[in-house]
Design a protein that fits this description.
The protein has 355 residues and is of the alpha/beta class. It folds into two domains: 2-114, no CATH class; 129-352, Vaccinia Virus protein VP39 (Rossmann fold, 3-Layer(aba) Sandwich), CATH 3.40.50.150. Helix content is 43%, strand content 15%. It contains 17 helices and eleven strands. The chain has helices at residues 2-9, 12-28, 33-37, 48-58, 60-67, 71-79, 84-102, 112-115, 121-130, 148-152, 161-165, 183-187, 201-213, 265-272, 287-292, 295-301, 313-324; strands at residues 171-175, 193-197, 220-223, 226-227, 232-237, 245-246, 259-263, 276-281, 304-308, 330-336, 346-352. The strands form two sheets. Strands 3-2-1-8-9-11-10 form a seven-stranded mixed beta sheet, sandwiched between helices. It has a four-stranded mixed beta sheet with strand order 4-7-5-6. Strand 1, helix 12 (183-187) and strand 2 (193-197) form a beta-alpha-beta unit. The protein is globular and about 50 Å long. The protein starts with a helix and ends with a strand.
Length: 355
């Protein structure tokens, strides 16, 4: 079966060069690989996450030159100091992305019964819990019925009580606020204010509407701006409601591209005189840039960090080591907060042990 699968997804010239690596990935996956493929229900793997990983598989040496390390070295550094569950999450994510990239032309259709075989037991258990987390409130806007953040409070569920106690009365920065779906769990932790950055005009409209309808105006400040590693404007794609994103590789001088204003967290915190207790980022592959623009804030205030790292290889491999090099005493864990998607919502959770 494995040989047949390899013949299906790999060109002849490539098959024999990387066959040993692919076999090791296949053997490591807990569920049969064909069962995982069933999740995609006949669609091609052309989403942003998978596309961002394709260059790594096509030219791993070029990727290593850009980063100064091999993929193996970066993966080793990423796992350094993490608990067993975090290491399992990383292995599972990389195995699934590997298959998604190399199996991009496969078309497998499935029934609901087969679909249920895709996820691991812990994911299946959590899927059944998601619908029970949001019975007390309703928001307006796209994907308003998808309450992934409520299951684990955006990652705060995994922080120790001593860290949680230090959040009350601090300022929270929510990068990629979407329609406000992250607000209900964050507000439970008694922040002074939540500054919700959402650069998509359509999403920002719903964000403001939900803040008003839920009477959060005294605790939430919506901002129709993006975050980054500098102040200015950048090309922006908002054709995907929940996946609106900065086009990092777009032509900066193209007058036809939609543009948004961005600023750094460092500048914003300094200008407003904030005392940040938490930074949450889900900015569709621009997380590395935002963290680079928040370095001084992280050094000074040591906020809790909830950072999505699944969109791009750069976010996945480099954000944790970047913060570790600051020597601030951060403890890290990695958890997958979306049990109903094979690799979405993989979050780096960080908190300083001496804050």
């Amino acid at each position: 079966m494995i040989k047949k699968l390899l013949r299906t997804i790999l060109p002849n010239g490539l098959r024999y060069h990387i066959r040993p690596y692919i076999l090791s990935v296949i053997e490591a996956v807990q569920r049969p690989l064909t069962s995982f493929a069933l999740w995609f229900d006949g669609t091609k793997f052309d989403n942003v996450v998978v596309d961002s990983w394709r260059p790594c598989f096509r030219n791993s040496s070029r990727f290593a030159e850009m980063s100064g390390q091999s993929v193996e070295e970066m993966f080793r550094d990423l796992k350094e100091g993490l608990d067993a569950q975090s290491r399992r999450e990383l292995d599972r994510y990389l195995q699934r992305v590997t298959f998604a990239v190399l199996g991009g032309e496969m078309k497998i259709y499935c029934s609901n019964r087969q679909w249920a075989r895709v996820f691991d037991d812990d994911e299946t258990c959590h899927i059944s819990q998601v619908s029970q987390c949001h019975s007390s409130f309703t928001l307006d806007g796209p994907l308003a019925n998808v309450w992934i953040d409520t299951l684990f409070d955006g990652g705060l569920f995994f922080c120790p009580p001593s860290v949680i106690e230090g959040l009350a009365g601090k300022d929270f920065i929510d990068g990629g606020a979407f329609i406000g779906d992250s607000l209900p769990p964050l507000l439970k932790y008694s922040p002074s204010r939540i500054y919700s950055f959402e650069p998509s005009a359509a999403n920002y409209k719903y964000l403001c509407k939900n803040v008003t309808s839920m009477e959060w105006q005294d605790r939430v400040v919506p901002l129709c701006k993006g975050l980054g590693d500098r102040s200015g404007s950048v090309p922006f794609d908002e054709t995907n409601e929940s996946g609106s994103r900065v086009l990092a590789d777009a032509n900066e001088t193209d007058p036809s591209s939609k543009r948004i204003d961005i600023l750094t967290i460092d500048d914003f915190v300094s200008e407003k005189g904030l005392v940040p207790g938490l930074i949450k980022l889900d900015v569709e592959g621009f997380e590395w840039n935002v963290i680079a623009g928040a370095a001084e804030t992280i050094r000074q205030f040591k906020p809790v960090l909830l950072i999505s790292i699944y969109h791009t290889p750069k976010d996945f491999f480099m954000i944790k080591p970047f913060i570790e090099r600051m020597n601030l005493g951060y403890h890290f864990a990695i958890r997958k907060l979306n049990p109903s998607h094979p690799f979405a919502e993989l979050v780096l959770i960080g908190y300083a042990t001496d804050r």
